[in-house]
Amino acid sequence: MKRVFAFAAVLAAGIAQADGSPLVGTSWQLHAIQSMDDAQGTTKVAEPSHFTLEFGRDGRAALRLDCNRGSGDYRVVPAGDGSSGSLTFGLVATTRAMCPPPHLDQRVARDLAQVRSYLLKDGRLYLSLMADGGIYEWAPLPAAAAAADKERMIKPVQFTKGTSSAVIRDRITGRQYIDYTLRAAAGQRMTVSLKGSNDANYFNLLPPDSEGPAMASGELLDNRFDGLLPDDGVYTIRVFLYRAAARRGEQSDFTLSVGVTGAPLKPVPAGTDAALPGTRYHASTTVPCEPAFTRTRQCEAFVVRRGFDGTATVELRWDGTWKRRLLFVKGEPKAADVPQAMTFTRNERGWRVTFNGDEHFDIPQELVFGG
After folding, report:
1. What pTM was computed for the model?
2. Most CB contacts within 10 A, which of 60, 124, 214, 283?
3. Taking the mean position of all CA atoms in its chain, how far away is CA 31?
């Protein structure tokens, strides 16, 4: 099986921008990357709307990086009439989904930390990298891009009464994609399989409240998934055509099989284990953590206890944006809402949970068991 590549980074503290900056409040899409290396030349972006940059009025930038999302602080200092000046980003904080080749998301995320200046010319934005590292050419994001989800269809999955599975036959064409949604709970097992008439037809499984990062990618799993669910909520099975086939307007007639089995691991009632006011969580704390490619070393940790035997959902948060949900069953981590391989070690204080060997989260025993 292919190794799921994942990366994340966090921006250094930035300075909020004054509304007088010509970049504040603007939105752009990436058209080309000009390299100073003649052998590499200029890289044209096939789908500019998949790479966008929005300069917020609070000094935060929002990014779309192909199948990933990013955000963080920026600092701009205009010169003269404002058509040029200095511009710097910290390291870009991104989600960790595996995007299709040529993996421009990785290159853009890395290069933004090297941006040192900007130029507005003929309605376009040019970002220059340090040490003549290259130039990024951006064009204004069309207003129509805000309505890009016209290509999205949402269809709830319905199980016939008395059954726990469904077989769906449908069709997608070109850039269309269909989000099949269904509610499920922690501890249940979900199975998904997809068979399409087009070999470029795949699915991603998105956990509750996800804007795009998947917990499973059909492309990497031979279009099959079978696993425990870490939390309660609405899961989304996104069916789509791979990029090249979508651009050519190809279609696929597909069969999607979905099943949810097993009894939910219900939360302990608030009357038995008091919940934090106004939340579904029974407790919270701060834990040592080392998310990949970030300077963060402390994460917020929340728990929904599903018993007092070490069965619980632990939710980890960091940098105000990113989250990880882990399901513990009888004191052992069993499932997570990301595709990276999970391992753990037990110690006298609790558990060290590791993803792909490059992310670490320390979970205290008291959080999971209570007390």
Report:
1. 0.66
2. 214
3. 23
